[in-house]
Design a protein that fits this description.
single chain; mainly alpha; 82% helix
Amino acid sequence: MADRSVSTVFSDIIGNAQEIIRAEVLLAKTELRDEVLAAKRRIALLASGALAAIFAILFTLFSAFHALASVLPEWSSALIVAVAMATAAAILLHAGKKAVPHLPANHISVESIQEDHV
């Protein structure tokens, strides 16, 4: 083994460390890109499901309107369906409003994270 100077050894160590850091950054970018693509697929599926659910609700309400309209005037059938939906919306919004304060608060800010890593 040839004798190498201390400066050459340190230079090699720094070069190797830089190469390792570059490889880690490249790996992190690749993993992040894969996670984003997977998240996009999941979001697209959720959005499609939500859209289908909205159409299902609309057609159910439309069916309820027509069923009531066969025995009541159309205006009263529409009013009954609208009041039922408004009641359901009010109940759900109230329940959601009561549940929000019970969510665990996340008080970590970008500044505190940056301070921790400096």
